[in-house]
Amino acid sequence: MGTPHDCGAYSVERMMEDMYDYDSGYSEGEEEPSSDEAGMDFLDGECTTRTHHAQPTRWLLIDAKKLLQVQEEALASVMAILGCSRSTARSLLMHFRWNTETLFGMMAERGLDDLYRAARITSRSAKTPLAPCDAAELACAACLCDVARPDATQMACGHAFCNDCWRQHLAVQISEGRSRRLVCMGVRCGAVCDEEQVRQLLAGEAALLARYERSLLESYVEDNAMTRWCPSVPHCGNAVRVDGEPHCEPECSCGVRFCFSCTEEPHSPCTCEMWKRWKVKCHDDSETKNWLTANTKACPKCGKPVEKNGGCNLVVCMCGQAFCWLCGESTGREHTWTSISGHSCGRYSEETSARVDEAQRNVKRYTHYHLRREAHMSSQKLEAPVKAKLQASIDKLEKNQSTLKDYSWLSTALEQLFHVRRILGYSYVFAFYMFGNDMFREEVTPAQNALNQNLFEDQQQQLEGEVERLSMMTEMTPDRIMEAEDALRLDVINSTVNIDTRLVRLYELLENDLLGALTLGCHYISPYKGQSQLRSGGGVHGLSTAAVGGSLEFPGLGTGAGPSGDGDPTRPASPPVQAATAAGVARAAARAVPRQTQGLGQGSTGSGHRERAALVPGSPSKRMRHDPR
Amino acid sequence: MHCAARQTAPVACAEMFDLGRIQKELREIERDKTSGVTVQLNGSSLQRLTGFVEGPRDTPYENGYFVVDIQLDDQYPFVPPKMRFISKVYHPNVSSANGAICLDILKDQWSPALTLKTALLSLQALLSSPEPDDPQDAVVARQYLTDHATFVRTARMWTENFAHRSQAATEDEKVTKLADMGFSRVDAIAALQSTANDENAALELLLSAA
């Protein structure tokens, strides 16, 4: 398998290249572990990773209707156990931020009276004796008037005022945004008013009452540590509740995906703190510079700014010069997407930068990581129309064709590509802070840091290589990929599985070895959930995703072997499929060559800034010899 | 004591200022001569009043006669009255610059069952028992804790110089004089404050502002 371009790392020492100069990886050969085995490896790894997380993170989308329902569930559970009123239950839950476990825990530990006292609720048993009710009139302490008894209301705490005064008091409190904590008017009383009494008092004030009810309803989201509003603008009205680990990136039904911890855009694998710092840093730059650095690159030959118009990171200037989009260096004609002769630009070298002073070093580091992040983000943008177009074709074909063809492999690949681009982009932000010897200076020694950086960049490079390969394949004209025979299909599937495997490895490294090794402070990232994260529905069009972790399963193709798959009688035994897969890939490779040559012709005339890209058939396969793990 | 910022938002069912209640309050204050607090009207409006607090005995504020500016919101008594010392007061919970008061019942602990009289009495209580751990004026509070003798001396000096009964009377006289010329009492007090009680300078200031 190729690192089409090991741009994830750039190093003076080329020795690393030998280690990673592996080839296609899908070609036949006994020493080659097949994708089957890769899938197995990955599954094992996945399972061990999962054990670190006690419970898998799940989230629940809460829309307007659901909000009432989930709130009622929480209220009902408290009312059932404490045998209290709805109002009391709500006040308690608000006080305990809708965490029933803490509430019941405190009750078991400290008793019911303490519980009520903490939430400033006057329970019926502990109330002060009520004022004598036989008096026909009551002197209201707020308006200093005598009012007839029926026109006054007494709260559970024992304080009584006239209804007019209550209404005005409630109006002021509600309009000042204190609906959730309407307290008694008594001097230093502070007891929470009963919900039903408030409703009765405000019966004539529809607007106020609506505001009050709405505020109570929204308390479930706003006073709840495990629930957040969707940050969409304009607001879609939905909220998300997370059960278990709060570090995840849920997706709202409105299409907005966000980091649950900080409600910013999803930024895994970089931590919230890193992302916060990165944003501040980016805003320091002028917008023009941002645009130029993000969108153009000077051609190494003619010096004109070149804007990228395709997803691939290998570009050709109008003047004919081919160069690497990530580092901007000329790469020559022999620069194909499977092998880059002598080119490795993404590794950040401590050695070269040691010569420049600290400030310059920082600027250089920042630019290095910024550019690489931008490159992936713009690739993602450019790949979006391709994805949309292909998806449209898939939908059309699936509707029209009488012999139903299954295109889920392609949808999955497109989805995977979309997400992995984002992850790659943010991985550079992560690297900027992780290996900067700034954020974790006290915890990681320089030697350890260099080692970590090497490990990380190796994995990042491998992932990047695979991503560029998949990007290449999906950018073929829709017609051709739609009528693709098994070989090309297998190639795409293999690539997708491979990316998944590499992502899992990368996240293992991040979670266990890099962030996991830190002892000071808390640094969490949203874990990679594999394909199951992409599709909440699980199996789509016959494609089933394994329930645990991110294994990809393509039934009948044998590229994946889920935990449940071993005993599946309908599935062909592993070895024959393995052989078939390998043979299929070889055929695909053989056929791919003429097509690619054709593609080159197109590329040089029009849209193609992409250099010639071809599978190299029959080349001696050198599978990755060195496993960093 | 809390000094939380209070938001003022228009009330959905805002009602007109409750004249009945404030009239009753004023009558009650009028009747009680022993409490040491009084309230005077400022012209015709019942929403801008001036309060007077006698300095509590056995404190550096003894024999002082402190003037308090009182503003009542439309929603009073459901929102707390705005109070601030016009006389300069050397006290950990009173700003020596503008007389702002840090007292919980004037903020989140206000209750409609409290009145102007109880609020002024609370001010009096505050004068006799400062709370330096929750200060409005950090410099004074630090001195109160570290160099109590100097604090007492300064507070007494301020009381004699800025809050003497006669001073309050002359000040009040000056205010009345300026008010008779057609300026509002509030503006007159402010002008006198910013000109160190110089009547002529205050008049000039008022004229230049008009």
Quick description:
The complex is a heterodimer of chains A (629) and B (210). With 629 residues, chain A is mainly alpha-helical.
Q: Which sequence of strands runs across the widest sheet of chain A?
A: 1-7-6
**Form type of chain B:** globular
CA radius of gyration of chain A: 31 Å
Total helical elements of chain A = 19
Instruction: State the end-to-end CA separation of chain B.
Output: 39 Å
Strand order of the largest sheet of chain B: 1-2-3-4
Q: Please tally the β strands of chain A and state the result.
A: 13
Identify the quaternary structure here. heterodimer
The percent range for helix content of chain B is 40-55%
Topology of this structure?
The complex is a heterodimer of chains A (629) and B (210).
Chain A: H1 15-20, H2 35-52, E1 58-62, H3 64-82, H4 86-95, H5 100-110, H6 112-118, E2 137-139, E3 146-148, E4 152-154, E5 160-162, H7 163-175, H8 195-201, H9 206-222, E6 227-229, E7 239-243, H10 272-284, H11 287-295, E8 296-298, E9 305-307, E10 314-316, E11 322-324, H12 350-353, H13 358-400, H14 408-434, H15 446-474, H16 478-482, H17 486-514, H18 531-534, E12 544-545, E13 552-553, H19 574-605
Antiparallel strand pairs in A: 1-7, 2-3, 4-5, 6-7, 8-9, 10-11, 12-13
Helix pairs in contact in A: 2-17, 3-4, 5-6, 13-14, 14-15, 14-17, 15-17, 17-19
Chain B: H1 19-31, E1 37-42, E2 45-54, E3 65-71, E4 82-85, H2 116-128, H3 138-146, H4 148-162, H5 165-180, H6 185-194, H7 199-209
Antiparallel strand pairs in B: 1-2, 2-3, 3-4
Helix pairs in contact in B: 3-4, 5-6, 6-7
Structural overview:
The complex is a heterodimer of chains A (about 625) and B (about 210). With about 625 residues, chain A is mostly helical. Among the domains of chain A are: about 65-125 and about 135-220, no CATH class; about 385-605. Chain A contains 19 helices and 13 strands. Chain A has a 3-stranded antiparallel sheet. A two-stranded antiparallel ribbon of chain A has the order 2-3. Chain A has a two-stranded antiparallel ribbon with strand order 4-5. In chain A, strand 2 (about 135-140) and strand 3 (about 145-150) form a beta hairpin. Chain A is elongated. The two termini of chain A are about 20 Å apart. Chain B has about 210 residues and is α+β, with helices and mostly antiparallel strands. Chain B has a domain at about 20-165: Roll (Ubiquitin Conjugating Enzyme). Chain B has 7 helices and 4 strands. Chain B has helices spanning about 20-30, 115-130, 140-145, 150-160, 165-180, 185-195, 200-210, and strands at about 35-40, 45-55, 65-70, 80-85. Chain B has a 4-stranded antiparallel sheet, with helices on both faces. In chain B, a hairpin with a 2-residue loop joins strand 1 and strand 2 (about 45-55). In chain B, helix 3 (about 140-145) packs across helix 4 (about 150-160) and helix 5 packs across helix 6. The longest helix of chain B is centred in the last third of the chain and has 16 residues, at about 165-180. Chain B starts with 18 loop residues before the first helix and ends with a helix. Chains A and B meet through helix 7 and helix 9 of A and helix 1 of B.
